[in-house]
Amino acid sequence: MKTFTNYFLFAILFLLIKPIMSKEREPNELGKIFVLTYHKIGDFDSNFTRSRKGFVEDLQTLKREGFIPIQTNDFSNANIKIPKGKKPVLITFDDSSISQFEVDENGQIKSNCAVGMMEEFKKKNPDFPLTAIFFVTPGSKSPNDLFGQIRFTKMKTEFLLNNGYEIGNHTLWHANLNQFRDRIQEQIAGCQREINKFLPDFRIYAMATPYGSFPPERYNHLLIEGKYKGHSYKNKIIFDYSNRLSYSPFDINFNIYRVRRIHGFDKNIKKIVQELNSPTSDAYISDGLEDTITIPQSEVKNLNTEWKKKFKVKVY
């Protein structure tokens, strides 16, 4: 009898708390956005290497916890088309190392590189629109010169663009743009020039500064647009490496030329996912409406009103 009573009480308690547990979070399109940064992929985790096992677990975690990958181009245009209740995530890779994209002697993608693992994950999870941007350093020493394997560089770069990935500028050879401020245009235009050897018509529209370093403010216009020896460039979005969550593009504090990114280390990723999944967090939660920005009353002061020209605004 006692066992039955305990079971009955537990069942009643479960029915009472189930609506609370399953309640969908209210939309907040002024919430923070997870921009995740990886460097190398390897056997073990270290400061700039994510283990292969850990990388796949990251993808599984993102899917399970309601994150939807978006493209940098869409993010820069505030075109975040994801289902209601979901959270956007932007996945980035720096330094174009061979561990990110490696092929065998026949040009077949190796299953243990980042691209190979993402392609396999896409096959197993067709409902998860996995994508990433690769910030490349084509003038670096091998194997960071556009993923090494020069014989396959054209094939690799074409594969990325033809399969939903993006390519961004990380300077010619990973130059610290604060130290090399007199060579900013040379470095950024040089990356564009080298990419065009393999993708003649491709124009890079996004950059991540090496080391997250920026020159003094008077040089910042050169990060956005410039030219060197007949090769020009124009970046519409620039990322740092500050290990902070990004503002929403609709937020008045959002700076499209200094977008924050999170370091892709094991404990750091778990911490951020847990933080954004907290019921009290200020995570970006989609309303699922392409023509509407939905925000709580408490966030009205942070809305960049310029977006009212393009979107409806719903306040609750």
Protein described:
The chain has eight helices and 14 strands. By secondary structure, the chain is α/β, with parallel strands linked by helices. It has a single domain (31-291), classed as Glycoside hydrolase/deacetylase (TIM Barrel). Helix 4 links the parallel strand 5 and strand 6. It is globular and about 55 Å long. It starts with a helix and ends with a strand.
Layout: helices, strands, pairs:
Blueprint: H1 2-22, E1 34-38, E2 40-42, E3 49-51, H2 52-64, E4 67-69, H3 72-76, E5 87-94, H4 114-124, E6 133-136, H5 153-162, E7 166-169, H6 184-196, E8 206-208, H7 220-224, E9 225-228, E10 231-234, E11 237-239, E12 262-263, H8 266-277, E13 292-295, E14 312-315
CATH superfamily: Glycoside hydrolase/deacetylase
Percent of residues in helices: 25-40%
DSSP summary, beta strand count: 14
Cα-atom Rg, whole angstroms? 22 Å
N to C succession of SSEs? HEEEHEHEHEHEHEHEEEEHEE
Q: How many helical elements?
A: 8
> Main sheet, how many strands, which sense, barrel?
6 strands, parallel
- CATH class, anyone? Alpha Beta
Which terms would index this structure?
316 residues, alpha/beta, TIM Barrel, six-stranded parallel sheet, 8 helices
